[in-house]
Specification:
single chain; 375 residues; alpha+beta; twelve-stranded antiparallel β-sheet; eight-stranded antiparallel β-sheet; 6 helices; 25 strands; 43% strand
């Protein structure tokens, strides 16, 4: 195999596909990037066995073929090369020569015949969504995906799409995040809703490689896999198996107390109070709502902090405590300038929603000595 392509295009492709590499691959061959050259185009592929990312671009192909190069070191090698044309030559199945300007390097190669066969998906339910909107949805819920593998289904996020909206839901047992996109979606005849539980790792990688523009990406979803195609990139992943938590039963139907306040003021106050909360045993932040005031406080053996900001209260006064990191994550992801919080009591969940509309919903449990998970 002999091919030549621009170093920046090559690096862009490598930076994209190597996101699928596992730090501890099940097979040595999965440490590599598969490079396939034919018809004056090159395809780069990396996989960890469940997530596969492919990148295609034009190239000058003098001799067609395939080669598997060590993914991470090859990427670092190209990153440090000068701008210009890079030529990759592999002839003896043992090594490949990489030339750029006056630079020459060589790398040992692996047998491409040992690389797992990547079969593009052909069947399933198709959903088309604008890249920047999908990226925005993911960015607002990914923080609530569980990291505890004991309940594997919660290490993913539930995507639900019907003919009028798409929603992405994540919950880790102590907080829930839901973001909605209202627009018409074309689904196949006889199909009312499409569901998929997408691994959290995949969502994180998608936000890093999805372009921030309004071009459409295409999601192809079947019972066990999802394929996402945008531009010259194709990402394929195994979906999480099993039924996702019925999150609707967790959401309170009515509330006794509502509070409206300035988001940035509350966020700044909590950030300052968190400095002391981290020194305490439970990392607690206490919120005290009165008629027109919200007090935010924390204490530890080293001292205490008390902040005060304006708030509009509808209902009875309320004192409630939260894990500082959890409440910070929620407030940081609220896209509005106002923070609208709803409560029933100091021991029941707090729900954060828009002042008008229902584009998002966040739920967070207060901290109690005997608090159990929400699910």
């Amino acid at each position: 195999m002999i091919l030549s392509m621009n170093s920046q295009d090559l690096l862009e492709g490598l930076n994209t596909v190597t996101r699928a590499l596992s730090p501890r691959p099940a097979k040595q061959i999965l440490e590599g990037v598969l490079i396939s050259a034919e018809d004056n185009r090159v395809m780069m592929t990396c996989s960890d066995g469940s997530l596969t990312i492919e990148y295609t671009n034009t190239a000058s192909v003098q001799e067609e073929g395939q080669v598997v190069l060590p993914g991470r070191i090859f990427t670092e090698m190209i990153r440090k090369m000068p701008a210009g044309m890079v030529t990759i030559t592999e002839q003896d199945r043992r090594s490949a020569t990489i030339r750029c300007m006056k630079n020459r390097s060589s790398l040992a190669v692996m047998n491409p015949a040992e690389y797992p066969e990547i079969t593009p998906m052909k069947t399933g339910a198709t959903v088309k969504i604008q890249q920047n909107k999908l990226k925005d949805m993911i960015s607002h819920v990914a923080f609530a995906v569980a990291t505890d593998e004991s309940r594997q289904i919660l290490t993913g996020s539930l995507l639900e799409v019907n003919r009028s909206e798409a929603r992405l839901v994540a919950l880790d047992g102590f907080r829930l995040a839901m973001y909605k996109l209202f627009q018409p979606f074309e689904l196949a005849d006889g199909l009312d809703v499409v569901k998929a539980v997408i691994p959290g790792k995949v969502l994180n990688e998608l936000t890093k490689i999805l372009p921030d523009d309004d071009a459409f990406c295409s999601l192809l979803i079947d019972k066990g896999r999802m394929q996402c195609v945008f531009g010259n990139i194709r990402l394929t992943t195994v979906l999480l198996a099993g039924e996702y938590i019925d999150y609707r039963r967790i959401l309170p139907a009515d509330f006794k107390t509502e509070a409206l306040t300035d988001k940035s003021s509350v966020q700044d106050a909590i950030d300052r109070a968190s400095l002391m909360a981290r020194e305490g045993k439970n990392n607690l932040i206490k919120l005290s709502f009165r008629e027109d005031t919200l007090k935010i406080s924390s204490n530890a053996e080293l001292g205490d902090v008390e902040e005060e900001t304006e708030a509009s209260l509808n209902g009875e006064p309320l004192d409630i405590a939260f894990n500082a990191r959890y409440i910070t994550d929620v407030i940081r992801n609220v896209p509005d300038e106002k923070l609208f919080m709803k409560f029933n009591s100091s021991v029941s969940p707090c729900v954060v929603v828009p002042q008008s509309g229902n584009d998002y919903l966040y739920l967070i449990l207060p901290v109690l000595a005997d608090r159990k998970s929400v699910v």
